[in-house]
What we know:
single chain; 15 strands; Beta/Gamma-Crystallin; 13% helix; mainly beta; repeat; G_crystallin-like; Beta/gamma_crystallin; Beta/gamma crystallin 'Greek key' domain-containing protein; five-stranded antiparallel beta sheet
Amino acid sequence: xxxxxxxxxxxxxxRKGLNQVGMQxxxxxxxNNSSAAIMSNTDMNMRGKIIFYEERNFQGRHYECMSxxxxxxxxMSRCHSCRVESGCFMVYDRPNYMGNQYFMRRGEYADYMxxxxxxxxxRSCRMIPMYRGSYRMRIYDRENFxxxxxxxxxxxxxxxxxxxxxxxxSSHVMDGHWLMYEQPHYRGRMMYLWPGEYRSxxxxxxxxxxxxxxxxxxxxxx
Length: 222
């Protein structure tokens, strides 16, 4: 009797790149251990879910999202509240992951516009995959990886106090997912970074911001 021939096809998921000048993503080969850690978390990554509501206090029509959404206007004309049921998300006040951004973890945001100080609502969102592994990132006080450089592997609540850096203008993320903040102690506006090369924050639309602290997005936040 002939044995049955099984053909397995792996469908790889490729995140859409940022439509931003100055950011280049360079894929790298990972160690077997890192690959195994990422694959073991695939089912966890797919469980992220956020629900957007037209009105404050979770009223009106709603839209459930379990992945990236580049333009929410296709689903609803406005959004004044949201609820993160699982996972972590980055939300943006402009389409295509542009403009001001804010990190959301599990919880209820009955009136997020007042909380964030936004005049406009959420226009796009990006799901942040869960990550378990090492964290490594290089920050530079000049564009194009110039000037003073420091390699970081943990949180830093004040660049000036620890590194004597008054600003961070470019970075290279080797491992992990990170949040950069414009003020010390993880305050103010923020920016989400994942593995890749970020040659110019100014060219990415953040020329008016001075990044002064950063922290890792940990798996314990999920």
